[in-house]
Write a structure and sequence with these properties.
Layout: H1 2-25, H2 28-45, E1 48-54, E2 56-57, E3 60-61, H3 63-79, E4 83-86, E5 95-98, E6 103-108, E7 111-121, E8 135-144, H4 148-151, H5 154-170, E9 174-177, E10 192-195, H6 209-223, H7 226-232, E11 237-243, H8 250-261, E12 264-267, H9 276-284, E13 290-294, H10 297-300, H11 328-334, H12 339-347, E14 357-363, H13 371-374, E15 381-384, H14 390-401, H15 411-423, H16 427-436, H17 442-480, H18 486-503
Parallel strand pairs: 9-12, 11-14, 11-15, 12-13, 13-14
Antiparallel strand pairs: 1-8, 2-3, 4-5, 6-7, 7-8, 9-10
Helix pairs in contact: 3-5, 14-16, 15-17, 17-18
């Protein structure tokens, strides 16, 4: 072993001797030219090519550098041995990164790419209005020359798209509203926003699982359908109409859709919009990957159903609601938003000034809406939010009481299954009963729910019986008095039909 170290020291001494001779004989310029020529020859015979991506492009920030940093964070968290860790502003996730001089190998379309992160100290810089960072950071990409046509620029485009999606998913989602009376602020942005933290998901949504799967599949097809919409020449948007009685979970459905797709929500208040022009400006200021919501559209503005013989009466506003603008007499006259403007908003030329957006309308009375507003192309999918079914009831009991699937086959559950449809109770009412009894033992809370449903069925039966009796009395009075109005006769007939349908 001693002889090996002696030989190694001799070799190093000889190498140092020849190096000193070269430095004494050859000038620095010649040595630099020789080294440059050697590197060129090495690159010519090498099977790899290299790309350097610096953090700063001159005095401007290189967007590609930050995209690569975010893209590699997915692989760095598992493959790298030494990592940097950060969390950005308004971000809900931690970002892993490569440490100084660390390497990682990434694959794309069957080809491999090696990334190395380099951090060096920048030399002292002269005075500048925009000083550069003290450290110079860059990524070096090493790929095989034969893979260059395959990776450049497709690989870099993939990195940019993936980083944009990761950045959007990591940021907190926002809930926007136009509650400024339609006026624009100094920056020309008419929306105010707050962080969107609604906990509703499709797992907790009280709805039949088969219908939820259908809606989720439709949402996924839309989010992944960029190529389809481009090939067919259609705007990348989709409309959903949620209708049904109050308390059936329409707002929870919207929140579940936003959480499922990681979209922002724009809650458009039509009563705050004065003209069609303001409506277009609001649409232009929405972003892609968002859900534009108009709740209770039949009550927002007086949109006449042109297919009906007489206009549907608008919903009465609360007594303490003041006119949006101007005096009480001039407020309605100043409002010029029309059905035509709303139709153009959802499916006109202006609706195409963005991509990957979903329009959602909600209503309690679908018959009040104009057919042109709910046709396919504007509202592509109609979702009826019905009363609480037994499948939805089981989901609510699991959410509030922790009721397991193994417990859903006993006598108590069979009684609930028999009575829930006849009770015609909304998921909101069921939730109220379960919340009130959530601290009780599970079976006691379920028994209390059963009693509430039975009481509701009895009230409905008594109400229907009273209506039938009243209808029969009105019919009898009408036969005795020829001057009885035709409306009363029709009312009595309808009451009888409702009773017969209930008995069936």
């Amino acid at each position: 072993m001693k002889e090996v170290w002696t030989s190694l020291a001799s070799i190093m001494g000889v190498f140092a001797f020849f190096q000193s001779i070269l430095h004494a004989v050859f000038p620095p310029e010649l040595r630099f030219a020789a080294a440059k020529l050697f590197h060129r020859l090495f690159r010519c015979f090498s099977t790899y090519c290299y790309f350097e991506i610096t953090e700063m492009d001159g005095v401007n920030t290189n967007e590609l550098y930050h995209a690569v940093q975010l893209y590699l964070s997915q692989s760095a968290s598992m493959a790298a041995s030494r990592m940097s860790l950060s969390r950005g502003l308004n971000s809900s996730a931690f970002t892993f990164g490569l440490a100084n001089n660390d390497r990682i190998v990434n694959g794309f379309r069957g080809a491999s790419a090696t990334w190395e992160h380099t951090v060096t100290q920048r030399q002292s810089q002269s005075f500048s209005l925009r000083p550069l960072p003290e450290e110079k950071r860059s990524f070096t990409l090493q790929i095989k020359k034969k893979d260059k046509p395959l990776l450049i620029p497709a690989y870099l485009d993939h990195i940019m798209e993936t980083a944009t999606e990761l950045r959007r998913r990591n940021q907190d989602r926002r809930l926007y509203t136009n509650s400024r009376g339609g006026s624009m602020e100094s920056r020309g942005f008419p929306w105010e926003s707050v962080p969107f933290k609604h906990p509703s998901t499709f797992d907790t949504l009280a709805m039949d699982p088969a219908r939820k799967e259908l809606i989720m599949a439709d949402l996924n097809d839309f989010a992944q359908g960029k190529a389809f919409y481009e090939n067919t020449g259609r705007a990348w948007k989709r409309g959903y109409l949620l209708y049904g009685p109050p308390g059936t979970g329409k707002s929870s459905m919207i929140a579940a859709m936003a959480n499922h797709l990681s979209y922002d929500i724009y809650d458009l208040e039509l009563t705050e919009v004065q003209t069609n022009s303001e409506l277009r400006k609001l649409l232009m200021k929405t972003t892609s990957k968002s859900i534009i919501v108009i709740e209770d559209i039949d009550c927002s503005v007086n949109l006449i159903n042109r297919s009906s013989k007489k206009p549907a009466p608008p919903c009465e506003p609360p007594s303490d609601l003041r006119p949006a603008r101007g005096t009480e007499d001039g407020g309605a006259a100043a409002r010029t938003i029309t059905l035509s403007g709303l139709l153009s908003f959802t499916d006109g030329l202006w609706s195409c000034c963005g991509s990957e957006r979903i329009f959602v309308f909600t209503t309690n009375h679908i018959e009040k809406l104009d057919p042109a507003l709910v046709r396919s192309g504007r509202m592509d999918m109609h979702v009826f939010m019905s009363y609480c079914s037994f499948q939805a009831l089981k989901i609510l009991m699991k959410n509030y009481l922790g009721w397991e699937d193994s417990e859903q086959s006993d006598e108590l559950m069979r009684e609930l299954a028999e009575v829930v449809d006849e009770a015609e109770i909304t998921p909101a009412d069921v939730s109220g009963i379960l919340i009130k009894n959530r601290r009780r033992e599970r079976r006691e809370a379920a028994a209390e729910l059963l009693e509430a449903l039975k009481a509701r069925v009895e009230r409905r039966k008594r109400s229907l019986s009273e209506q039938v009796v009243e209808a029969e009395e009105q019919e009898k009075r009408a036969l005795e008095s020829p001057n009885e109005s035709t409306d009363q006769l029709m009312h009595s007939c309808n009451a009888k039909e409702d009773k017969g349908a209930e008995e069936d």
